[in-house]
Every structure is written in C-alpha cells, then in structure tokens.
Amino acid sequence: NTNAILLTKLFHQCKILGLVSSQYEFSNLCGRKRSWYSSTRCRNVPISTDAAVILSVRLEKCAREDLRHELRPHAEYLSELLMAVVRERVEAELC
After folding, report:
1. What is the pLDDT of residues 22-70, one digit of tens each?
2. Which partner from 8, 32, 56, 87 sits 20 to 30 angstroms from 77, CA to CA?
3. CB of 20 closer than 8 Å to CB of 29
4. Any residues with CB less than 8 A from the CB of 55 and at least 6 apart, and which?
C-alpha cells in the first residue's frame, strides 16, 4: 500500500508547511479536481507523473516566494523527492 502512503505523506507535509488545509486544496495544488486526492488514495494508485511534476514545480515556487525561511528546505526536499519519482518512471519507460 505504498502508493497511498506516499500520497498521504505528501498531503500531510503540505498541511504542515501551511500550503493546504484540506484535501480539496491539496488536489488543486496538484493541478487536479477537488476529489482527486481522496479518489486516488482510495483506489491505491500512485500519484500520476503529471500531478507529481505540477506539485513539484509548485512546491519549488512556494519555497522561493511564499514560505518562511526555515520551512523552505522542507518544501525543496519534497519537490526533489517528487522529481526523483518522475525521473525513475521515465527511466523505467525508456528501458
């Protein structure tokens, strides 16, 4: 059930950073419709590559522009983690 665990951790980290306060806001931060997070988690599917890229870019932007200095490294780490997931998927598709 690692798919749901990663998605849940991402959601909770975004809440801790103060970027979202609800599942709906998290879905929006990922560039998706309101019910996307709960639906994706319940179906136990991994975060899509598109959603991972959008979330990564938005986290990086928030780290630069919106977050307090002490929170920036956490957002940057999450952004890097998501891009690593994307790179891993792309490399797997190329093989």
Report:
1. 999 999 999 999 999 999 999 999 899 999 999 999 999 999 999 999 9
2. 32
3. yes
4. 10, 29, 30, 31, 47, 79, 82
Encoded tokens for 37: 């997070």
Find, among 18, 89, 5, 3, the residue nearest to 59 by Cα. Answer: 18
Task: Provide the token pair at 91.
Answer: 């490399």
- Exposure of 57 in the CB half-sphere (CA atoms within 13 A): 9
Angle at 5 between CA 41 and CA 81, to 5 degrees: 110
Q: What is the dihedral angle through the alpha carbons of 78, 74, 35, 83, rounded to the nearest 10 degrees?
A: -10
Tokens matching residue 74 = 């956490």
* Residue 64 CB burial class (10 angstroms; 0-12, 13-18, ≥19): exposed
**CA dihedral sign of residues 38, 39, 40, 45:** positive
